[in-house]
């Protein structure tokens, strides 16, 4: 059995990790880390875990945790993992960080967008960006995985094949994104109150959302040149789910079959990326509670643009599910172990 510890087990992403790992036949959770609920029963924080999890919450002592487990997940605010990790810990355990601390290779870019001084930037070069479908081989050998952000996962997977195949002009990409409120975490915030969110839809982080440089970096690798994007997220009144609609100019005239072949080239063998049938638009309801990302596209010959679409559960493929997928790869397990979750509908 793989022994796992979760720092930030009481947040939404951490809670989802607990839900998924509880059903994973090769994993035993040894540490339910928290800041506010130390010594409180985990099932009192999340009553859905009543009679399923008996343990109490622990603190965020990564050094102590490293002596007891094989893998540590950090599902904590930006900067926390970077402030705790050190060489001794990394020599003992594998770390999968769900925050952005090790996602962006250029430390100055991270510090500028996150307004945090990176205390352990020496580990950034070795951290593997855990987008499993694209960096699978590197993930298998990693001791530190930077689990991708939710919007970046959905955006990159939806756009990647067309950039790789040189079908779109990299600097014409516009991403319009929508997310449910669990994307903002469990902490109380006025903007996330029922009355503020219900019956409402609003853009936020316009032209300055922190996921912008992360998406740009990943799309730049795909394009083989620097990519700048417009990225506009919206908050919508639902619990889970991300929908992205991305637009780009085509470099040449292409047929439906050519574009479909580009998606199939990268995803035909991928369990968790489903390229939908012609004219079927992805919906968040069709992936809810699962590790799937549904993608599709539509050509618009009138404007010579292509519209790329993706839907995903932000807490599963966008956070905990992808983290478990990374763990499976790092420990040589079947990649889909514990992740055979059928989407909930309705
Ligand atoms: N929510 C998503 O859809 C999503 C998707 C992808 C990535 N992420 C990333 O995952 C991380 C967690 O997000 P979340 O949405 O789960 O946030 P959240 O619901 O606010 O949870 C934050 C967690 O971190 C713990 N924590 C906060 N400060 C801490 C400290 N100083 N020391 C130890 N623990 C501390 C909290 O403990 P207490 O509960 O005890 O205060 C809680 O368990 C973030 O980096 C986020 O960007 C989230």
UniProtKB/TrEMBL annotation:
Pathway: Amino-acid biosynthesis; L-arginine biosynthesis; N(2)-acetyl-L-ornithine from L-glutamate: step 3/4. Keywords: Amino-acid biosynthesis, Arginine biosynthesis, Cytoplasm, NADP, Oxidoreductase. It is found in: Cytoplasm. PROSITE patterns: ARGC. Pfam families: Semialdhyde_dh, Semialdhyde_dhC_1. One of its GO terms (cellular component) is cytoplasm. It comes from the Bacteria. InterPro entries: AGPR, AGPR_AS, AGPR_dimerisation_dom, AGPR_type-1, NAD(P)-bd_dom_sf, Semialdehyde_DH_NAD-bd. Its EC number is 1.2.1.38. PANTHER family: N-ACETYL-GAMMA-GLUTAMYL-PHOSPHATE REDUCTASE, CHLOROPLASTIC-RELATED (PTHR32338:SF10), N-ACETYL-GAMMA-GLUTAMYL-PHOSPHATE REDUCTASE, CHLOROPLASTIC-RELATED-RELATED (PTHR32338). This is N-acetyl-gamma-glutamyl-phosphate reductase. The gene is argC.
């Amino acid at each position: 059995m793989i022994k796992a510890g979760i720092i930030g087990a009481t947040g939404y992403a951490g809670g989802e990790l607990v839900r998924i790992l509880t059903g994973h036949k090769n994993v035993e959770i040894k540490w339910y880390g928290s800041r506010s609920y130390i010594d409180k029963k985990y099932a009192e924080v999340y009553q859905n875990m009543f009679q399923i999890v008996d343990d109490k919450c622990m603190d965020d002592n990564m050094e102590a945790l490293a002596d007891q487990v094989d893998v540590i997940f950090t599902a904590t605010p930006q900067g926390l993992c970077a402030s705790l990790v050190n060489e001794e810990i990394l020599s003992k355990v594998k770390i999968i960080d769900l925050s952005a601390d090790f996602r962006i290779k250029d430390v100055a870019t991270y510090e500028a967008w996150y307004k945090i001084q990176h205390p352990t930037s020496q580990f950034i070069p070795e951290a593997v960006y855990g987008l499993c479908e694209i960096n699978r081989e590197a993930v298998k050998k990693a001791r530190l995985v930077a689990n991708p952000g939710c919007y970046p996962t959905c955006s990159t997977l939806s756009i990647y094949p067309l950039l790789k195949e040189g079908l779109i002009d990299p600097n014409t990409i516009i991403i319009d994104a929508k997310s449910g409120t669990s994307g903002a975490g469990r902490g109380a915030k006025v903007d996330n109150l029922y009355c503020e969110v219900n019956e409402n839809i609003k853009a936020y982080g316009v032209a300055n959302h922190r996921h912008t440089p992360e998406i740009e970096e990943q799309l730049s690798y795909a394009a083989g040149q620097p990519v700048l994007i417009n990225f506009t997220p919206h908050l919508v009144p639902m619990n889970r789910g991300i929908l992205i609609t991305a637009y780009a100019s085509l470099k040449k005239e292409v047929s439906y079959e050519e574009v479909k072949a580009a998606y199939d080239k990268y995803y035909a063998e991928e369990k968790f990326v489903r390229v939908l049938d012609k004219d079927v638009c992805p919906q968040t309801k069709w992936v809810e509670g699962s590790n799937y990302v549904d993608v599709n596209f539509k050509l618009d010959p009138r404007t010579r643009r292509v519209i790329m679409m993706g839907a995903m559960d932000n807490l599963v493929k966008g956070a905990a599910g992808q983290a478990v997928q990374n763990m499976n790869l790092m420990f040589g397990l079947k990649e889909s172990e514990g992740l055979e979750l059928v989407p909930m509908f309705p």
